[in-house]
């Protein structure tokens, strides 16, 4: 057995393991005189042939935090300051780290929220009664729970490309199924459609010609918002493409809200006052949120397809 005692910073480069007819035992541990109580490496291998090339490909079980710290210390020693790009590069090499962080966040949730509100979560396990149906974009930068603070049980959520609502007469879709379930079974009191800045789905809609590529799943979906595109072109065709997209991002929300009134069971509840329809626009460039509510009484007097009337507009 070979024991190599090492200090906190160490580097192994092409360590020469020679071929041997008997198994090789290899063990590394930290300096006993070190103040750290965490072993840096505890590895034993038994191999008949273990070349330097094999060693380079072997994943050593060194704690993630130490690997990153050691690399940063080596950079500092060499006069190189580790930046965001360098740290991101290190993270990409450790694919398991993504789930490590996810695990830590889950355990924190379990300890700080779930266990501290056990009775609430037990009630949720039996039934849900959310007040909101949220229709939001699938964009990773637009998480309704993170942005608006929805807690478990508060919002039934469906996310799709460009937060679009298909017409009542169109083919079945997961968005229509979510509408039916949340309104008729869960009996939500509010539907909130959230659009956002720099939406890739809206950019695809504004950039495609006519009906787009029929082979593209994206084009076949975003053309649901073609009326929003047409209304944008009618009033903003002289603007830069980016500004046209920004206009369409908001226009598509109102077109989707208008479409909701085309669902008989939704309009019936809105008319009775048991259901309210809202629009929201999250600008993640400037971190603002604009909210408005459909004025059903005023909207009824409008010609079908001419838009909706809104009220209670505010910017947060």
UniProtKB/TrEMBL annotation:
Q: Cross-referenced Pfam families, in alphabetical order?
A: Pro_CA (PF00484)
PROSITE patterns for this protein: PROK_CO2_ANHYDRASE_1
Q: Does the keyword Lyase apply?
A: yes
Q: Which cofactor does it need?
A: Zn(2+)
Q: GO terms for molecular function, please? A: carbonate dehydratase activity; zinc ion binding
Which free-text remark accompanies the cofactor? Binds 1 zinc ion per subunit.
Q: Which reaction does it catalyse?
A: hydrogencarbonate + H(+) = CO2 + H2O
Can you tell me which residues bind Zn(2+)? Answer: 137, 139, 196, 199
EC number, UniProt record: 4.2.1.1
Keyword Lyase included in the entry's annotation: yes
Q: Which residues does UniProt assign to the signal peptide?
A: none
Record's keyword terms, sorted: Lyase, Metal-binding, S-nitrosylation, Zinc
Report the CDD domains cross-referenced here. beta_CA_cladeB (cd00884)
Question: What is stated as this protein's family in its record?
Answer: Belongs to the beta-class carbonic anhydrase family.
Q: What does this protein do?
A: Reversible hydration of carbon dioxide.
Kindly provide the name given to this protein in its UniProt entry: Carbonic anhydrase
**Annotated organism of origin:** Eruca vesicaria subsp. sativa
């Amino acid at each position: 057995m070979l024991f190599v005692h090492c200090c906190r910073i160490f580097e192994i480069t092409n360590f020469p393991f020679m071929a041997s007819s008997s198994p090789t035992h290899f063990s590394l541990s930290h300096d006993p005189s070190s103040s750290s109580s965490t072993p840096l490496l505890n590895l034993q291998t038994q191999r008949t042939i273990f070349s330097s090339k094999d060693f380079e490909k072997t994943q050593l079980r060194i704690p993630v935090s130490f690997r990153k710290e050691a690399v940063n210390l080596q950079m500092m020693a060499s006069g190189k300051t580790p930046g965001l790009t360098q740290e991101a590069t290190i993270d990409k090499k450790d694919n398991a780290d993504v789930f490590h962080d996810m695990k830590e966040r889950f355990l924190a949730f379990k300890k700080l929220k779930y266990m501290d509100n056990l009775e609430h979560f037990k009630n949720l396990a039996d039934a849900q009664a959310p007040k909101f149906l949220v229709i939001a974009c699938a964009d990773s930068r637009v998480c309704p729970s993170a942005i608006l603070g929805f807690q478990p049980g508060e919002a039934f959520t469906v996310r799709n490309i460009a937060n679009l609502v298909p017409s009542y007469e169109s083919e079945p879709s997961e968005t229509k199924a979510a509408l039916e379930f949340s309104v008729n079974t869960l009996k939500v009191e509010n539907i909130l459609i959230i659009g956002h800045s720099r939406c890739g789905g809206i950019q695809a809609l504004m950039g495609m010609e006519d009906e787009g590529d029929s082979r593209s799943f994206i084009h076949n979906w975003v053309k649901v918002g073609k009326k929003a595109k047409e209304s944008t072109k009618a009033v903003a065709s002289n603007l830069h493409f980016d500004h046209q997209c920004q206009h369409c991002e908001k226009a598509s929300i109102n077109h989707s809200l208008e479409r909701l009134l085309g669902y008989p069971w939704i309009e019936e509840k809105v008319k009775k006052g048991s259901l309210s329809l809202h629009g929201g626009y999250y600008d993640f460039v400037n971190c603002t949120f604009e909210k408005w509510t459909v004025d059903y009484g005023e909207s009824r007097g409008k010609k079908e397809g001419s838009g909706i009337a809104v009220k209670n507009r505010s910017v947060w």
